[in-house]
Amino acid sequence: MDGETRIPDFERIETTVLGGLLRPGKLYLAFVGLTLVCLLIGVVAYSQIILVSIGVAGINNPVHWGVFIINFVFWVGLAHSGTLISAILYLFQARWRTSINRIAEAMTVVAIMTAGLFPLVHLGRVWLVYYMIPYPSTRELWPNFRSPLLWDVFAITTYMLVSIMFFYVGLIPDLATVRDRSNGIIKRVYSALALGWRGSHRQWHHYEMAYMLLAALATPLVISVHSVVSWDFAVSLIPGWHSTIFAPYFVAGAIFSGCAMIIVILLPMRKFLGLHELITVRHFSLLCKMLVFMSLIITYSYFAEFFIAWYTGNDIEQHSFYNRAFGTYGPLFWLMIVLNSLLPLTLLSARLRENLKYVYVVAVGVVIGMWVERFVIIVTSLSQDYDPYAWGTYAPTLVEWGILLGSFGLFFFLFAVLAKIFPVVAIGEMKALVRSQSGESEHG
Amino acid sequence: MNKKNTLSRRRFLKSTGLMGAGAMLPLGRSRAGVILRGLIPDEEIIPGISYWLNSTCAECSAGCGVKVRVREGNAVKIEGNEQHPINHGGLCARGQSALQALYSPARIRSPLLRNNEGQLAAVSWFDAMDKLGARLRVSSGRNAGKVAILTRHVTGSLKALLDSQTSSLPRLKVISHELTDYAAMSAANKLCFGIEGIPTYSLDRVRSIVSFGADLFETWLSPVSNAYGFAEARHVVDGMPWRLIQFESHLSLTGANADERYCCPPGAETLIVLAIAHEMLKNSAMPPEQAEKWRRALQSFSMERAARASGVSVDTLMGVANRLRNQTPSLAVAGGPTCRSKYGTVIQIGVNLINIAAGNYGKTLSFERFEHAPVGTHRQLTDLVEEMEAGRVEALIVHDTNPEFAFPEPERWRAAVKRVPLTVQLAPVRDSASESYDIILPIHHWLERWDLVEPRSGLHCVQQPTIAPWCDSVHPGEAFLQIMNALMEKRPEPNGHYEEFLRGQWNKIRGGESANVEFDDFWQEVLASGGYWERPTARNVQLDARAADAIPSVELAFPEPGTITALPITTIRYGDGRQTGRPWLHEMPDPITTLVWDTPLLISPETAKKWKCRSGDMVRIECGGDTITVPAYVQPGTSDAVAAMPLGVPSNAYAQYHYAADSHLLHRLAGHIDTSSGSISWVGAPVEFKGVVGRVRLARLQGHNSQKGRGIAQTTAISETGQSEQHPAEEAIVEADLYPKHEHPVHDWGMVIDLSRCIGCGACAVACQAENNIYVVGRKQCLNGRELSWLRIERFIDRGRIVFLPMLCQHCEHAPCETVCPVYAALHSSEGLNQQIYNRCVGTRYCANNCPYKVRRFNWFTYKVDPPLERQFNPDVSIRTRGIMEKCTFCVQRIREHKEIAKVEGRALRDGEVVPACAQSCPTHAITFGDLNDGTSEVATRFSDPRGYTIFSELNTQPSIVYLRRECLADGTGTESV
């Protein structure tokens, strides 16, 4: 394969990458327009919640959590792969990450921002959300530190701050490159953002140390954030939620969906920004391998959950899982199995891995499958828990679908904006990679 | 009419509102201050203090004693009067809902007169009465037609007034009419004993009751009294357990609580009653020649015949007869829709015979007091309709009843009304027929007036105003007096007011046994106790063998086997249908179907199979010549031979405050009349199935019928010899706690709910709703699963027995909701209460998810009530708005109120002083509440009852509510599904 073996020179890297920052084309504007329309739909839907009440959603008694919490977990999950690819793969020195880490990080930042909105959307009285922040009030009222929701507040904020920092630190050398190639007001803006980067040896030395430390700081967060999110469920006593497997299960699921989402975003970007030389089929193949690996973990978790439910001999637990597979929402469960456990297995075939269209379909399937997985976990468990008198069902309303659509609109809009103002591939790192590879023999 | 006259008349009318006696009574029909001045002197009214006024419920004929809580001029809560001999402190849901009629948006605000355009328009009292008087005078004369008064069941003073006037006015014809009359009972008693009246029943002394269709706990005679008696009887006496045996065609609440329940087609109960009566004659103490006469009359009614018709085995029927004979004192009763048949009187004669043979008179039922005052029969109403049709009725005055609803042929009634030149309605609230009258005169609601009622003979109960009448209404007695004065063309005398009459009536009562007591003292006594109870008059019964002649020897005609009969039924929710305009009742789940708002056609699973339909299908049926489309609901326990429908179909619109216009099956009766009593047979026309035409969602609150072996509702078996089953004590979970134990230094509130006493009537749920300002959310939200009630009755089956279980916040010591709330809106109080701080709640709803009992309720919207219903709100409980979680507080406002009272009085709280609304209203006293720290309190002793268990104890939530297992007879018959 031609694109894979040819090593571009520095100049080509810069022009290719920075080409994305040029004046927006029609296609770009159309895409941004589409995302804005989706976002607007979401805003209109949300205004219903504010103007009328949270009751316009389909959530009810006993399913008090619905699409909003599903979206929250879904977006937090998507926010995972960025840090995983940037930080963990960096620490493991998996160099292939270089081509895609910027996109992954940007995705993290945008996804965590989107995710962070959902706990607010979901509140009955969002105007009092500051009660959840530990601030010294004259009444000496503090939030309840025993509540997993409060842990969420901390986990999400921490993760968001660290990923923004990580994203920004990684950007500094590239911002300097943009600065050097621009003029006028734009030059001044990028100058400020580049924090006086000169590319001196000393600066590079400190930069790499800082980057590594941040990577080391971010790595445990990848594990902790979704563990904490999973504890929202695991710490409760709802059958189907109350399970020790939840933290690793959710982390694996998050990485799984994140990898899929990277593929979903990367493929069109590669096409429209002409990044074929930098992001090659090999990258997708490697991402697919990760996808398969995560899919296996997820499948094992599904199995383990059911096995443990059966093995406990606890009627209530058993019923909860029986209901998950064969109850009202049974079809969704089987859809989830197909999309998350079966389809990704086909990527074990190298031929299919290199068929990017097929990979794309599978990746979209996984993104949908992981959303459905959260629906299955959250809704089926709540719909039939302890007291059969209180059992019920839940169906999302248009408002909830509208807000889901709006969140995609917000995500892609922010992403498109970031892609327009920042280089989508880490130029500095790419150059370093190219140098090391051209110096050495050509192996992966 | 000159001005002077006008004024005097108006003033006269104005003074008609408030009746009463002595210095206690106010004289103006005016606003709250005036009323309260009469009752509690102005200077003594303290804002924030509740005043309790005794009165008597008029929601049905039972006449339970109530006390009404008045706060700042508003009546806010009705509770049962503990001193009252009828209800002993409990009050049913329908009685409690009277407040929603008092403050109903459909109250008639002023007199309405049909104007020239044919529209009802508001007029002044003067104009209305002037017109009425003029019309009555015009119609007077030699050949004057009749003036008919059609009234609801009235007793005491109003009845005395009407009786006194009819004797002097031959033109006047007074008919009192109740949909659920008991004419067959009084007719049978007249035939059997020469006593025309209904005896009072003392269920509390009973060891075995056999009920032929009588809905003892729903509407039958005096349901709260029956429920109380039943619960009192349910304990083992000298090694002998109680037993309730029910024969019925649809699953009633009474049947659900029965120890043995037999489902039989309509008509079969006649044969069963007569066969059992026949059997019991065998070794009764009756004189031989009398017994012979009865035996001859009953000879064709054999056990075999009854068994064939009912599907119940001969052995079982013999067993029932033996129980009645041996497990004494026993009681046989018959009632309900199937016993309102054309053989109604025959059934009642059979029942009388059984009670005589078992020697029950004087023990479990007696004529010492008569239940209800006599009411007219269907035949009398039909006579009236015929006279109206013939144009012989000049004026029709309808008092607080809706004949268009209660008369089985509404079209005929409407046509007959059109033939009457003057029609007047006296009612507090508009109903479906209001549009058809010429003059509508608003009368005081019973919570706004003084009166003397006598629901059981010798029990003289007081009704007193609790709020100032807020509509331009008068006392019905005053309105009657006015009308009669107009009829007699009399000028009103100075003493011719109803209040004077009423005072005279009370004076007469004092004149009996307490003639030497000053009236004021007597009156104080009456107000304090809710009435004056005369000593009962002993009456012996002597069976008259001539009654045997009433038993038809010919073959009885019953519905053909295989036909499905339409059967209107009375339920605890809507009773006889008059309370269908009350939002609380709409949202109270029917205990059997657990449906709110909807009243579908109840069919048996077998019928459903035959019709190929399931619950929620709209079925088209042909019945009594009409085709109607109704939702079907498959209710196990319904006989295959009936399709039953509760009386009172509310419109699905939220704001429906009047009688339901279309009661469906009641208007599709077969038209058979019981010739001996003159009442109409409720057993309706045959139902022809015409197909399923669609589907509708029914608002059912119970998510799943089975408790799936989770031990939520538990039973304990009682053997034939009264031995109860032993249960292992719950194992305390002793594991290291992550958090320190809660300290309860002063009080530790707890509750014990005795499932043996709970009959599932739902009075507690409505009491809770009234006390805690819980909104009615409407059918649509109920369909979405957004019901708001804090307390619900769950209905499960344990070991084949139906168990009703009130589920409310368990106030766990280890509350799962408390740990997960991020803002401490849910937290534990130092008194063991699980509190919800509304102002702090941000609405994450995590607490509700994490509650295994699912008792937390979320305000999905800011709900509203139609004014002036908000006057009912309890000022001690804050109103919640959207986005807030709420739940049972153990009535913390009552705890606070009594703690403050105790503090002011400088003493400790007494046991039993704090009673939450649910416990107070419970007709069977199933709920005990109190301080667990006080080792001598009732709740503390019952907490360790061997029957006790906590729900989901394996979760270690450590609830503050202990349930006592329902005692079930080991040999009773069970139910597989409900």
Describe what you observe in this structure.
Chain A: It is found in: Cell membrane. The complex is a heterodimer of chains A (about 450) and B (about 1000). With about 450 residues, chain A is mostly helical. In chain A, about 70% of the residues lie in helices and about 0% in strands. Chain A contains 16 helices and no strands. Chain A is globular, with a radius of gyration of 23 Å. Residues about 1-5 and about 440-444 of chain A have low confidence and may be disordered. Chain B has about 1000 residues and is an alpha/beta fold. Among the domains of chain B are: about 185-370, Dimethylsulfoxide Reductase, domain 2 (3-Layer(aba) Sandwich), CATH 3.40.228.10; about 565-695, Barwin-like endoglucanases (Beta Barrel), CATH 2.40.40.20; about 750-970, Alpha-Beta Plaits (2-Layer Sandwich). Helix content of chain B is about 30%, strand content about 20%. The interface between A and B is large, with 51 and 54 residues.
The main pleated sheet of chain A reads as: none
Mean pLDDT of chain B: 86
Rg estimate of chain A, integer Å: 23 Å
Compute the number of helices of chain B.
30
The unreliable regions of chain B are 1-38, 651-661
Transmembrane segments (chain A): 27-59, 65-92, 104-133, 153-172, 210-229, 249-269, 290-312, 332-352, 359-383, 403-427
Subcellular location (chain A): Cell membrane
Organism (chain A): Candidatus Abyssobacteria bacterium SURF_17
InterPro entries (chain A): NrfD-like
Topology:
The complex is a heterodimer of chains A (444) and B (978).
Chain A: H1 2-5, H2 10-18, H3 26-51, H4 67-91, H5 101-122, H6 148-181, H7 184-194, H8 201-234, H9 246-273, H10 281-312, H11 315-326, H12 330-342, H13 350-354, H14 356-383, H15 398-421, H16 427-439
Chain B: H1 3-14, H2 32-39, E1 51-56, E2 65-71, E3 74-80, H3 93-96, H4 98-102, E4 112-114, E5 120-122, H5 125-138, E6 146-151, H6 156-168, E7 172-176, H7 183-193, E8 198-201, E9 208-212, H8 223-233, E10 243-248, H9 253-256, E11 260-263, H10 268-281, H11 288-298, H12 303-310, H13 314-326, E12 330-334, H14 336-339, H15 344-357, E13 365-371, H16 378-389, E14 393-399, H17 403-406, H18 410-418, E15 422-427, E16 439-442, E17 451-453, E18 459-463, H19 476-488, H20 498-513, H21 519-529, E19 531-533, E20 564-569, H22 583-586, E21 601-603, H23 605-611, E22 617-623, E23 626-634, E24 642-646, E25 673-674, E26 679-680, E27 686-695, E28 715-718, E29 749-754, H24 763-771, H25 779-783, E30 792-798, E31 801-807, H26 816-820, E32 826-828, E33 834-836, H27 846-850, E34 857-858, E35 885-886, H28 892-904, H29 917-921, E36 927-931, H30 938-943, E37 948-949, E38 961-964, E39 966-969
Helix pairs in contact in B: 5-19, 6-19, 6-20, 7-15, 10-11, 10-12, 10-13, 10-15, 16-18
